Amino acid sequence: MAKTATRGRRKAPARGKSKTRSSGGGLLPWAVIGIAAIGGIVAHDHWKSIQPMLARQSAPIAREAAEPKPLARKDVPPKQVALATPTPKAPPPVNQSQLLPPATIPTPAIQPVKAVPAQTSSAAETGTAAFGYCGQGAHINCVGDGGVFWYKGEKIVIADMASPVVDQARCDGERRVAFAAKSRLLGLLNAGPFTMNAAGKTEPSGAPRVVSRDGRSFGAQLINEGLARKPGAAGGAWCA
Q1: Backbone dihedral angles phi then psi of residue 66, each to the nearest 5 degrees
Q2: What gap in Å lies between CA 159 and CA 211, rounded to an integer?
Q3: Buried b (16+ CB within 10 A) or exposed e, 44-66
Q4: How far, in Å, are 49, 59, 60, 74, 196 from residue 56 at the CA level?
Q5: Which of 156, 230, 138, 143 lies closest to 184, judged by CA?
Q6: Helix, strand, or coil (residue 176)
Q7: Which pLDDT value is given to residue 111?
Q8: pTM greater than the 0.70 cutoff
């Protein structure tokens, strides 16, 4: 019976706690209202200093809201950025003389070359000296045989005659003619000045000359005297 009475008596809820909870929940709105009131008083007292700050913060927001944003169109192609064209380099300076055509470049005038007449060996040469017979020494001015002599060390061959040679004589008669022609030529050369005219190129055998005096050839005189013959003329030997 006691347990049943105990169970029938349940503990009533504590009123103090419920009052505390209800009072705590009821003070929150009043606290918010009080804070708002205090903030309003403070804002009212400092309104002059707060107003410029609010104006600066609200101005960009108002401009962004007022400016309409451009709508992107799908059919408009994207803008192409123009690339900067490179500046062409200035060409190096060109020498003006290289731009002139070859025809305009002044060329020095070619001076005509004066022709100098060549001295021919056919010019007459006058000679005079004391001649003798050639011996074993140097041949300067001497007679070798009836058609050969040396003048100033040069061997001269009389070109317009042919006479026998003493060293090549085949008989006494030819040897006598060779001695006579040699003696006669020595006399003609020592008789006075004479003239020599070239009759061909100088060869190792001697320089061919036509020797004359007063227009008369020494060779022609020896042929007329029977001491020489014309070059290449046919005839019998000097020996009988």
Answers
A1: -75, -35
A2: 8
A3: eeeeeeeeeeeeeeeeeeeeeee
A4: 12, 5, 7, 37, 137
A5: 143
A6: helix
A7: 54
A8: no
Pairing state of beta strands 194-198 and 154-158?
Answer: unpaired
Structure tokens at 78: 């994207």
pLDDT class for 77, splitting at 50, 70, 90? low
Question: What percent of the chain stands above pLDDT 90?
Answer: 33
Q: Which residues contact 51 (CB under 8 A, 6 or more apart)?
A: none
Q: What is the dihedral of CA 28, 34, 35, 41, to 10 degrees?
A: 170
CA atoms within 13 A on the CB side of 112: 3
Of the ranges 17-26, 159-168, 217-226, the best mean pLDDT one: 217-226
Say how far apart CA 135 and CA 177 lie, in whole Å.
20
| Residue 210, beta-bridge partner list | 197
> Residue 27's pLDDT is what?
75
CA atoms within 13 A on the CB side of 75: 0
Give the Å distances, CA to CA, from 12 to 3, 15, 19: 18, 9, 14
| Residue 203 DSSP class | B
Question: What is the C-alpha separation between 46 and 39, in angstroms, rounded?
Answer: 10
Closest by CA to 155, choosing from 192, 195, 213, 205, is 205
C-alpha dihedral, 193 to 197 to 199 to 204, nearest 10°: 60
Helical spans, DSSP H, in 82-158: 96-99
